[in-house]
Amino acid sequence: MTKTELEKAAVEVRKGIVTAVHSAKSGHPGGSLSAADIFTYLYFEEMNINPDDPKKEDRDRFVLSKGHVAPGFYSVLAQRGFFPVEELKGLRHVGSFLQGHPDMKHIPGVDMSSGSLGQGFSAAVGMALAGKMDGKDYRVYALAGDGEIQEGQIWEASMFAGHRKLDNLVLIVDNNGLQIDGKIDDVCSPYPIDEKFKAFNFHVITIDGNDFDEIAAAFAEARATKGQPTAIIAKTVKGKGVSYMENQAGWHGKAPNDEEYAIAMEELEKAGEALCQK
Fold it and tell me: What is the pTM of this model?
């Protein structure tokens, strides 16, 4: 896909996020929106996947370690064709398969159930090790939050991955600078994030995680990296794409009301229309 096509797809992913959370009257829009461009690139460009065969053996694997941003994950899965987009309106509703956190037993395209922060990356490391042991070519991607990396389990998994030289593994850290209680460097600073991962024998790339050119270059560099796992530190804007949500910690886990929903959708519609003029 061209950069403009990816940007258009990301707008649709963001619409799905806002629609799902508004319909549920709960959920996590801020981190879903900040990671929307990463989700879009992974599922429309980077990963070897097939919506018609979600469990194909040689597929690339993805683990959403920060499982609370399930609205972003579900939206890209729907846009990519794993299930109908209309299902997004069932988020967190009784009887819907779209639970508040990813469920590998019921949702097509979900490789690992997640939600307890820190644990998802350990599962991704295990998948990468299994691929190496089995002589498989698939790659494993995991997305973690910058607040999530305050969890010690992240670093235990990183130590193991670096020691085992798992070059089929990529961790993306969504560095939007905010967590539920405020700024990450006020709550419990994980900085310098890049130097910490370097100390665990990761190849580290720092990018603007809302810029598709930089995202594409980073994943290409990760593929070319041999002998060590890669950590992509993606600097993003929490709530990206919805003006009143951007850089506001209060939108970490809050749904828009009807008026706010209308404003958000109007802004996203205009963003999509502007891209069509390119």
Answer: 0.97
